[in-house]
Amino acid sequence: MGHDDSVQFAGLFQAIRGRLERGMKIIDPTDELLMLRVRTKTNEVLLTPDSKITVIVVQNAQDDFQK
Fold it and tell me: From what superkingdom does this record's organism come (predicted)?
């Protein structure tokens, strides 16, 4: 993934993170987002937020169990 794509990807997932955290506060104010996993046909994205840094991992979504 190129630099421009990475920056765009990070921005989109930061927006998703914000929406999820706001929604979770409505449901249960004591709860917090620890990890988000999103899987598509081609990629799997793992997002782990922290107070100072957010780690976003994008990996190939090959499923060895379906072979």
Answer: Eukaryota
Q: Give CA–CA dist 16/23, Å, rounded.
A: 11
List the CATH number of the domain containing 40: 3.30.450.30
Residue at token pair 């957010």? 54
Structurally, how many domains does the chain consist of? 1
Spatial separation of the C-alpha atoms in residues 16 and 61, rounded to whole Å: 20
pLDDT at 64 over 80: no
pLDDT of residue 22: 92
Beta bridge partners of 51: none
pTM for the predicted model, two decimal places: 0.71
